[in-house]
Amino acid sequence: MPDSVHNQLVFWRRWLDLTVETLTSHRAQLDALNVFPIPDSDTGTNLLATFTAAASARSADAAELLTQAAVAATHAAQGNSGTIAAAWLSGLAQEPGAPIARALQNAADKARAAIAEPVDGTIITIAQEAASAAQDNPEPEWAAAVAAGHAVTLTPSQLPALGRAGVVDAGARGLALVLEALAAAHGITSNTACAAPEVNPVFAAEQGIRFEVQYLLDAPASEELVERLERLGDSVVVAGDGPCQVHVHADDAGAAIEAGLRFGGLSQVRVTVIAQSPMPRRVVVSCVQGSGLRDMFEAAGAVTISTDVGVAELTHAITHAGASQVIVLPNDYQLGLVADSAVEVARAQGVGANVVHTHSPVQAIAALAVHDAHRRFDDDVVAMAEAARAMRWVRVFQVTEYAWTMAGAAHQGDFAAIVDGEVRLLGAELREVCEQALAAVVGGAELVTLVTGARLSSDLTGELVRFVAQRWRYAECQVIAGGQDDALLLIGVE
């Protein structure tokens, strides 16, 4: 960046003009690339509108010019990408006269802070890569532009939605063009062009209706507002220190507007009908053994995978579940460790994932019963985990080889019952072990769930149902034909 005040003014003025020129010539390409967070083909249009407003600033002072540009962009920002870009520009203007490397870092920080649930492989990734490359570089504008162009090419591997559609991220590509203009304003040519293949038409097919809601709020941003908007939808961005530009994708446009009215007056209210992405917002992936259990979980909306999986297979299931947010139910202690590793890999690829550590399918049934995809992701995970922990569980199986357990020596052919994670019961008679297991956990429970394995007879199942009815008159007993081979009987009590 030039040293003199006059030259800085010329530099920033030229950059804003070049940015508008660049975005104008690339608008159609950016619109065509737009598949995330929704395929509504408007990223180029929104970025151009935002920076056109920024370029209307006309101060004779360099610092004031950037401040005016940031305010104008915040007031005029359109769409998800435009609102994030306005926040980025606000960060760029945050520290008047700062070296360009520090200004770019401020911009990256401001853009990430404006997003309720940041996702890597998008515009914020490019902002950070550019800022990092500019640090301690004698040509920071050039370094930022080159790093941004390279980072854009990696976005399909970071965000599964882009990989499936065969495109780079539109917002990321847009910011790379903005940084290319920054280098050009400094007299450096940096071509960050990247291929813009056609979007997969199946991926971009419309499924349902949602609303993009945007308005200018005459009050500072607040965490409470962000939380309210997150409960209503996604793609929440709040940019500016007051007034602030608010953006959200929601099913209920009126509720999104009312959320803002709680905090101040609104202007420039825009509500646009958008095509909903075919990618579900949130999916549950459950490790399941047994056709009956598998059918039940899938009927409840979960994606199922065999219990005989490693990290690679489970990671593939998470990243190809067709969702930006995935909750994993391992249903086994050892699989819980596998799930932890798989989730870490999936997060690195841009999927928001977490594990609810269920140790038995009956705990997963309880977790699924309270699953709500309209809740905030973290709140949903907590609610499911609490429901799972509240479910006491038993696994009855036949011993295949000698082992020493908490209940004593287990010999081949014996029947054993794991109660809440420990082998507590052993016996030679299956019915006796099952009844003892029920007696150990039912107590004052209201609901007893029996998940029968493939080798448990219908006669014994009937006897166990009668045993529960006779001993605990106020407990309801439900039977699920799980069909699992690894356990004769699973018991859940709540």
Give a description of the structure.
By secondary structure, the protein is α/β, with parallel strands linked by helices. The chain folds into three domains: 5-193, Serine Threonine Protein Phosphatase 5, Tetratricopeptide repeat; 282-390, Rossmann fold (3-Layer(aba) Sandwich); 392-493, Hypothetical Protein Tm841, Chain: A,domain 3 (2-Layer Sandwich). The protein contains 18 helices and 16 strands. The protein has helices spanning 5-33, 43-54, 62-76, 79-92, 100-113, 123-134, 140-158, 160-165, 170-185, 223-232, 253-261, 291-299, 311-319, 333-348, 361-370, 377-390, 430-441, 458-471, and strands spanning 209-217, 233-239, 244-250, 266-275, 282-287, 303-305, 325-329, 352-355, 392-398, 403-405, 408-410, 415-419, 422-427, 447-452, 476-481, 489-493. The strands form four sheets. The chain has a six-stranded mixed beta sheet, sandwiched between helices. Strand 5, helix 12 and strand 6 form a beta-alpha-beta unit. Helix 7 (140-158) packs antiparallel against helix 9 (170-185), helix 10 (223-232) packs antiparallel against helix 11 (253-261) and helix 13 (311-319) crosses helix 14 (333-348). 51% of the residues are buried.
Explain briefly what this protein structure is.
The protein is α/β, with parallel strands linked by helices. The protein is built from 18 helices and 16 strands.
